[in-house]
């Protein structure tokens, strides 16, 4: 699939078929995330793969009742690892670069999943502490995004986008 087709065909899918995601596809998604650019190439993030039913069932309560998350075949939890970025970039690395690293990696994973015929939705609405507790995450990391992955059980229409004329601003001196 052409890159621009992947970008325009990606949808936020919240209904997943009861069909397992092949291990090679999951590994390809994780490999794509690993190739994401990061500040100073420090990769100041961690990815936690959730596939077991008990952990999947714990996530909706941590994600403000988004029950569809438990029906995904896997959920990737992208966490910032602030200490990795702080080593080189101090407070800005800790506060910003680690979060950016995690979000860029999540974006690469989302687009890779789309290219492989899988469905995802970016989840940012959750209680950090409850996610950390549900998955027993180390204190050194901070959850930034969750990415449920599976085969779609719905085909949402494209959502409206802002016009480029409204979104893009030319800087002129």
Mean pLDDT: 97
CATH superfamily of the domain at 32-152: NADH Oxidase
* CATH architecture label name of the domain at 32-152: 3-Layer(aba) Sandwich
* Amount of helix: 40-55%
Report how far the terminal alpha carbons are from each other. Answer: 40 Å
Task: Please list the strands of the largest sheet in the order they lie side by side.
Answer: 1-2-4-3
Do you know the CATH topology of the domain at 32-152? NADH Oxidase
Radius of gyration, in angstroms, nearest whole number: 17 Å
Shape: globular
Q: Number of DSSP helices?
A: 6
Secondary structure tally: strands: 4
User: Element order, helices and strands?
Assistant: HHEHEHEHEH
Detail the poorly predicted runs.
Answer: none
**What structural class do helix, strand and pairing data support?**
alpha+beta
Q: Write down the CATH class of the domain at 32-152.
A: Alpha Beta
Largest sheet: 4 strands, antiparallel
Strand % is 5-15%
How are the secondary structure elements laid out?
Blueprint: H1 3-9, H2 23-34, E1 45-50, H3 53-62, E2 74-80, H4 82-115, E3 119-120, H5 128-135, E4 142-150, H6 164-167
Antiparallel strand pairs: 1-2, 2-4, 3-4
Helix pairs in contact: 2-4, 3-5
Structure description:
Helix 2 (about 25-35) packs across helix 4. The chain has six helices and four strands, in the order H-H-E-H-E-H-E-H-E-H. About 35% of the residues are buried. The chain has about 170 residues and is of the alpha+beta class. The chain has a domain at about 30-150: NADH Oxidase (3-Layer(aba) Sandwich), CATH 3.40.109.10. The mean pLDDT is about 95.
């Amino acid at each position: 699939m052409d890159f621009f087709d992947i970008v325009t065909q990606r949808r936020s899918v919240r209904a997943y078929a009861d069909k397992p995601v092949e291990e090679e596809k999951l590994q390809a998604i994780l490999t794509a995330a690993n190739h994401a650019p990061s500040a100073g190439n420090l990769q100041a993030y961690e990815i936690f793969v959730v596939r077991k039913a008990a952990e999947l069932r714990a996530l909706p309560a941590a994600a403000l009742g988004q029950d569809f998350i438990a029906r995904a075949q896997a959920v990737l939890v992208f966490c910032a690892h602030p200490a990795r970025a702080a080593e080189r970039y101090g407070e800005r690395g800790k506060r910003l670069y680690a979060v950016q690293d995690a979000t860029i990696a999540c974006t690469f994973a989302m687009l890779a999943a789309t290219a492989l015929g899988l469905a995802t939705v970016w989840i940012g609405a959750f209680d950090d502490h409850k996610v950390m507790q549900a998955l027993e995450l180390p204190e050194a990391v901070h959850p930034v995004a969750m990415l449920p992955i599976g085969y779609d059980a719905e085909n949402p229409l494209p959502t409206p986008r802002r016009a480029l004329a409204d979104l893009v601003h030319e800087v002129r001196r």
